Amino acid sequence: DNHNIYNSKRWNHTRRIGLEQEPFCVECLKDNKPLHDCIGNTRDHIIPINEGGSTWELSNHQTLCSRHHNIKSARESRKGGAG
User: Fold this and answer.
1) In the beta sheet, which residues pair with residue 43?
2) 3-state class (DSSP) for residue 8
3) pLDDT for 80
4) 7 Cβ partners below 8 Å, 6+ apart?
5) Could you list the pLDDT tens digit for every one of the 83 residues in the chain?
6) Alpha helices per DSSP H over 1-83
7) pLDDT tens per residue, range 41-62
8) Contact assessment for residue 18 and residue 63, using Cβ atoms and an 8 Å cutoff
9) CA distances from residue 78 to 1, 10, 75, 81 in whole angstroms, order as listed
10) Between the chain's N and C termini, which has fewer beta carbons within 10 Å?
11) Are the C-beta atoms of residues 46 and 53 closer than 8 Å to each other?
12) CB-based contact 76:49 (threshold 8 Å)
């Protein structure tokens, strides 16, 4: 159950480390937004867990702002995934 993962101490630690290493939203950076506009607050699984993506490997995580995370989540839910 992914809900239990996101409430775990391990995920909170993994998320914190990821945000420290990659503090800016990767999508905002692609759009060349000013850095002060693209502070990320979400660690997102690039390949969703339910599609075989690694839960804990940092290489399967990316930082997104709330806006871009919502866009990605909506796109994935339309195709039947979650992330």
Assistant:
1) 63
2) coil
3) 63
4) none
5) 576 899 999 999 999 999 999 999 999 999 888 877 788 999 999 999 989 999 999 999 999 999 999 999 898 888 764 44
6) 2-6, 9-21, 26-30, 66-78
7) 999 999 999 899 999 999 999 9
8) yes
9) 20, 29, 5, 7
10) N
11) yes
12) no
Structure tokens at 61: 């995580």
Q: Please choose, from the candidates 42, 40, 52, the residue with its C-alpha nearest in 3D space to the C-alpha of residue 81.
A: 52
Residue for token digits 């159950």?
A: 1
Q: Which two tokens mark 11? A: 């995920």
Query: For residue 55, what are its two tokens?
Result: 């839960």
What single letter denotes the amino acid at residue 57?
E
One-letter amino acid for residue 52 of the chain: G
Length of the chain in terms of residues written: 83
Q: The tokens of 19 are what?
A: 């945000």
